[in-house]
Amino acid sequence: MEAMQRRACEVLDEAWRLGIRYYDCARSYGRSEEFMSAWLKTSELKKEDVAVGSKWGYRYTADWRVETSGEPHEVKDHSLKHLESQEKETQQFLGDHLRLYQIHSATLESGVLENVEVLEKLKTLREERGWKVGLSLSGVGQTQTLEKALKTGVFDSVQATWNLMEQSCGAALKEAHQQGLEVIVKEGMANGRLLRRAELLEMAERMKVAPDALALAAIMAQPFEPMVLSGAVTLKQLQSNMEAVQLCERLKEDQDTLKSLMSQLQTDPDAYWKERSGLAWN
Question: For the chain, which domains are there?
Answer without folding.
Answer: 2-188+223-230 (3.20.20.100)
